[in-house]
Backbone:
């Protein structure tokens, strides 16, 4: 675990014992207001990834996912995620009409965007690019303002109920630093999750994406119209079917996604704006 990112578990223990929120000075910076985005000079440096030659990214093959939720369980165990909160979540939807029905599954987590709105909006300077372009949080700096939750187009952040700080997927940096994959990847029994260096043409993630593109055609990304340039690609029918039911700005993953009354979901009234595409080229290298 990097010194810059800090030990979240130790911080949460201290926060619980003291019941005090961390005090962070806002001198010299603009507290997020209606526009939410901070001045560029405040976030420009934090948007730059370290010059380590790596570009971490994800490929999710929804054709293989059967909704076992093992990725969620391993993520919670690895990162001490409390009950009722999630760093990653698998969404599902029943499609078709009786007797031809099916359930599609959509594993989701932080997209580790190239142009991350959470970094631009963070008023305390805690969100930044870490190794491989991972969007991470410095828990020695995070003030729990929550603006990052308000601006994330994918609902990928939540505020920890104990530490009162923002939490999200950080690509299990404590594992990747040791040459291991994020905890969810080796836990997936159907090999639906792939993670690795997009700059390496022979990395497992790039090989999986090429194979899927040959079979499926152009791979998909979620809400590319947001222009965040996410580093997660999908194959299979789930992105189109489930996208309208995924969290948006100001929302977080939550247990309501598993409510029995959501098993047969109806389409939301809103439709994609004309001209917006759900697709983006695969490969990412």
Residues:
């Amino acid at each position: 675990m990097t010194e810059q990112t800090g030990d979240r578990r130790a911080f949460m223990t201290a926060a619980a014992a003291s019941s005090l929120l961390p005090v962070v000075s806002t001198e010299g910076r603009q507290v997020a207001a209606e526009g939410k985005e901070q001045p560029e000079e405040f976030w420009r440096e934090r948007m730059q990834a370290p010059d380590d030659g790596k570009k971490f990214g994800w490929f999710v093959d929804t054709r293989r996912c059967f909704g076992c939720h093992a990725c969620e369980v391993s993520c919670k165990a690895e990162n001490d995620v409390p009950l009722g909160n999630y760093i990653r979540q698998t969404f599902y939807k029943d499609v078709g009409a009786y007797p031809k029905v099916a359930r599609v599954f959509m594993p989701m987590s932080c997209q580790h965007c190239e142009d991350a709105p959470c970094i631009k909006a963070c008023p305390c300077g805690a969100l930044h690019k870490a190794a491989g372009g991972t969007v991470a949080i410095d828990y020695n700096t995070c003030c729990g303002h929550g603006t990052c939750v308000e601006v994330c187009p994918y609902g990928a952040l939540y505020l920890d109920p104990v530490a009162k700080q923002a939490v999200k997927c950080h690509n299990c940096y404590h594992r990747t630093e040791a040459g291991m994959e994020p905890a969810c990847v080796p836990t997936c029994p159907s090999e639906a999750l792939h993670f690795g260096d997009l700059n390496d043409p022979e990395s497992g993630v790039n090989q999986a994406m090429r194979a899927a593109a040959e079979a499926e055609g152009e791979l998909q990304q979620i809400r590319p119209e947001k222009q965040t340039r996410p580093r997660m690609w999908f194959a299979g029918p789930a992105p189109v079917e489930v996208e309208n039911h995924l969290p948006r700005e100001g929302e977080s993953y939550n247990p309501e996604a598993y409510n029995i009354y959501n098993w047969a979901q109806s389409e939301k009234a809103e439709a994609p704006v004309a001209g917006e595409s759900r697709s983006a080229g695969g490969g990412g290298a």
